[in-house]
Structures are given as C-alpha cells and as structure tokens.
C-alpha cells in the first residue's frame, strides 16, 4: 500500500475484536498502512473530542476510512465513566456532518441463512437521507379554536405566508424543513455509490401528496441524474428508477433484491430496520458512509456489544460475531485498492470475504447465527477467537 487508510478505533467488545481481526486476518497478509485515530470514549474525552474531527478531516484527505463501533455517551455512561468532562456527541453524527455523507446499510447474505422474505436472493442496500424532515421539525399543541399559518422571512426581504388550517378545538401542529443542498448531496452520494457497486438505484417519496416538498426531492434527483450520471449509468447498464413509496414497498417485497433503495429520513429509519430484521441478524449488517465526492467510511451497523464485553471482562470467551467488522475492513481495503490501482489489495479483500463466507457455509459460526440457519443445516458454535482462526486457516 502507498496511500494510508484512516483507521478509527473504538470501544468495548468491538475494540477487542478490532485488534484480533488486524492481528489474525490482515497484518499477516497485507503491508498495512493506516493513519490511526483512537475514537475510544476516553481518548475522545482526553482530546475534548478533537480526535473525532481530526479523523473525519483525515478521511476527506485520504478518501477511505474504516471505523470501529464507538460508545455514544448517555446518562448511564456518565455514571459508568465519572472522568467524562461532557456528554460527548455521537462520533458518527460528527463524522457524517463533516463528510456531508449518506449511510448505506447492506446485509451480508449466505445460502444457509434464508431471509424471511423467501424470494430475496441478493442483498437490498438501504440509503437513508440523514438530514431534516421530522427529525428537525417543530411541534406545537393548541387548545383554542383558531388558525395556524406558516411564514418565511427571507434575509433579502422575501416574505411568504400560508394558512395551514383553521380548527374548531384543540389541535396539534408540526413544521418540517429540508435544504436543497442536503438533498442534492444525498442524490449525488446515491448515484456515486450505485456506480461503484454496479447496482440499480431506486428512489421513492410521496410526491403525489406532498407535491412541493417531496416533489423537490424528486426534481433534484432527476436533475442530478440527467446532468451528471445518466451517461455513466447507461454505459454500465444500470437503471435509475423513481416510484411512489407505497408502490416501492410492494415491489421491494416481491423483488429478488440486489439494488440500492434510497429513502427520505423517516422512510429510511423504518425500512432499514425492516430489511435488517428480514435478512437475519444485526451482526451481519454493514454500513458505508459515502460523501457526494465518493469519499467512503466503512463500519459495522451494530454497536459495541456491551453485554458481551462485560462477560469478556470477567474472563469469559464470548461468541461475538465479527463478520460486519471484518467486512468493514475488506470494504476499505478494496476501495483503497480500486482508487490506487492495486489489484492485489482488491483481490485480498475479496479473498478474505470469501474465506469468511465459506467458513460460515461450512457450519462454523458464532452463536447469534445458529438459530437463523436453515433447518437440517449442520452447525458448530464457536467463540470469536475460534471463528477468526477458522477464517485465517482458510485464507
Ligand atoms: P449493540 O452493541 O448493537 O448490541 C445489541 C445486542 O445485539 C447485543 O447485546 C447482542 O445481543 C446483539 N449483537 C449486536 N452485535 C452483535 C455481534 N456482532 N455479535 C453478536 N451479537 C450482536 O447495541 P447496544 O447494546 O444498544 O449499544 C451498545 C453501545 O454501542 C452503546 O454505547 C451505543 O452508543 C453504541 N452504538 C454504536 C454504534 C456505532 O458506533 N455505529 C451503533 C449503535 C450503537 P445479545 O446480547 O442478545 O447476544
Ligand atoms: Mg430505526
């Protein structure tokens, strides 16, 4: 390797797995170069969270990052770690804001684990817009009869006011917004990622009802497609497909998978959990944060697996599934290889993924997957170390 990968270390059980994955599966095979940032909670605390910002800035500079799961402190964590100076914000939130990125979540699929939806044969990747709408809305409850209006005051004097509704009794109200720039970044990240993955892109909203609001999402996506991506899509034989959200849901359920589904913030929140549950296990969900310029940060979707960590601290060997974390590494190595024209690195990433899948397909798996394997499939439960050693042996 010549250009480094940004390596963001993390917390608890995933931090333990992180070290083992590097030691057993990567360092013996790759002349690994990383720029290391310790995003573990205590390091974020010691640096007043500057380390998170520095890691995100390094990612902009180097183009590829791999991140371990990290603790987002809450009240309970403030008690657990009395040295915390502040309830530091979610590192993922900080990084996403700096990279202006969209998160793409995809399941790792295997022949011996069938999704609940039996016609799904290939992974469905969910792209969730991560800004605005109901997540940045203001709400209001009123008691009297009356009228609500929505008004805008422009910095340059533009003024617009709209009657929302007149009511004859108690009522609830909500105002939402989104920014054109954020929608455009979302669209670009989706088109970029579809091209890298060589997969069709679906996008759905409810623009027949929200004609102006969702209509703007539809319009910006179409504009970006026509002006920047249609040619490349056609050259690769890819499709950009827009449809209404309810029609999309019906088509997704009847599809065989294998595409990227872009969704507005709320739709993506709901659908990503639905798709993850239908495919099987949280431990098999990967996530990539993609910037409009194609910068990528790879990670597992799950958290730091706290319950397993407490058992590990008591000296127990846990059967924590390292698959999504390994695939974060292979994703980053493959991307680095593609960007820098190092085909051996791409091949290594593919080979490591295959060794993992073959190990699982041979029946050797961590405890979380055993109940998901199809009936009659012979399995052997192993702990994390044994699983990594089985993969290393195949590799
Ligand atoms: P979690 O770490 O995802 O774990 C929830 C449960 O899911 C586990 O207790 C375990 O179930 C199962 N699980 C998840 N990953 C697994 C794996 N790799 N192998 C086996 N089982 C797995 O979620 P959490 O307990 O709600 O959160 C823990 C911490 O993670 C929190 O501090 C949170 O802030 C942080 N977090 C970070 C990220 C991130 O950095 N991207 C994302 C989410 C949460 P069983 O106990 O039943 O075995
Ligand atoms: Mg959710």
Tell me what the structure shows:
This protein has 395 residues and is α/β, with parallel strands linked by helices. It has three domains: 207 residues, Isopropylmalate Dehydrogenase, CATH 3.40.718.10; 123 residues; 38 residues, no CATH class. 44% of the residues lie in helices and 20% in strands. A ten-stranded mixed beta sheet has the order 2-1-3-14-13-4-5-12-10-11, with helices on both faces. It has a two-stranded antiparallel sheet with strand order 6-9. A hairpin with a 5-residue loop joins strand 7 and strand 8. The longest helix has 24 residues. The protein starts with a strand and ends with a helix. It binds NADP nicotinamide-adenine-dinucleotide phosphate and magnesium ion. The site of NADP nicotinamide-adenine-dinucleotide phosphate has 17 residues, from helix 10.
Topology:
Blueprint: E1 5-9, H1 12-26, E2 34-38, H2 41-46, H3 50-62, E3 64-67, H4 75-80, H5 91-99, E4 102-107, E5 125-128, E6 138-142, E7 146-153, E8 159-167, E9 171-175, H6 180-197, E10 201-205, H7 213-236, E11 240-244, H8 245-254, E12 260-263, H9 265-279, E13 285-290, E14 296-300, H10 306-313, H11 323-340, H12 343-361, E15 364-365, E16 380-381, H13 384-394
Parallel strand pairs: 1-2, 1-3, 3-14, 5-12, 10-11, 10-12, 15-16
Antiparallel strand pairs: 4-5, 4-13, 6-9, 7-8, 13-14
Helix pairs in contact: 1-13, 3-5, 6-7, 11-12, 12-13
Bound molecules: NADP nicotinamide-adenine-dinucleotide phosphate (NAP) and magnesium ion.
């Amino acid at each position: 390797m010549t250009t480094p990968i940004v390596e963001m270390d993390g917390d608890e059980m995933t931090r333990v797995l992180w070290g083992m994955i590097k030691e057993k599966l990567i360092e013996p095979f790759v002349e690994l170069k990383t720029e290391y940032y310790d995003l573990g909670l205590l390091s974020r605390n010691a640096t007043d969270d500057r380390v998170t910002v520095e890691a995100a800035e390094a990612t902009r500079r180097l183009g590829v990052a791999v991140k371990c799961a990290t603790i987002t402190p809450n009240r309970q964590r403030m008690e657990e770690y009395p040295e915390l100076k502040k309830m530091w914000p979610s590192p993922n939130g900080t990084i996403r804001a700096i990279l202006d990125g969209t998160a793409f979540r995809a399941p790792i699929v295997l022949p011996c684990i069938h999704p609940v939806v039996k016609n799904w044969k290939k992974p469905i990747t969910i792209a969730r817009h991560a800004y605005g709408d109901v997540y940045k809305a203001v709400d209001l409850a009123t008691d009297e009869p009356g009228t609500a209006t929505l008004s805008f005051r422009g910095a340059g004097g533009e003024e617009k006011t709209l009657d929302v509704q007149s009511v004859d009794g108690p009522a609830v109200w909500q105002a939402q917004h989104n920014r054109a720039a954020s929608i455009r970044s979302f669209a670009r990240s989706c088109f970029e990622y579809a091209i890298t993955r060589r997969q069709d892109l679906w996008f759905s909203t409810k623009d027949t009802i929200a004609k102006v609001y969702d209509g703007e999402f539809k319009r910006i996506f179409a504009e970006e497609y026509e002006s920047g991506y249609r040619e490349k899509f056609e050259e690769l034989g890819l499709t950009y497909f827009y449809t209404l959200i309810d029609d999309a849901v019906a088509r997704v359920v009847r599809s065989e998978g294998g595409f990227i589904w872009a969704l507005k913030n709320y739709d993506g929140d709901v659908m990503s959990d639905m798709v993850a549950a239908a495919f099987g296990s949280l431990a098999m969900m990967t996530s990539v944060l993609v910037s409009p310029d194609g910068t990528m940060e790879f990670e597992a979707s799950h958290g730091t697996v706290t319950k397993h960590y407490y058992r590990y601290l008591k000296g127990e060997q846990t059967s924590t599934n390292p698959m999504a974390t390994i695939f974060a590494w292979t994703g980053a190595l493959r991307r680095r290889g593609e960007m820098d024209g190092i085909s051996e690195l791409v091949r290594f990433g593919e080979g490591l993924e295959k060794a993992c899948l073959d190990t699982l397909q041979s029946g050797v798996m961590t405890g979380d997957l055993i109940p998901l394997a199809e009936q009659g499939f012979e399995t052997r439960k192993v702990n994390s170390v044994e699983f990594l050693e089985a993969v290393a042996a195949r590799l």
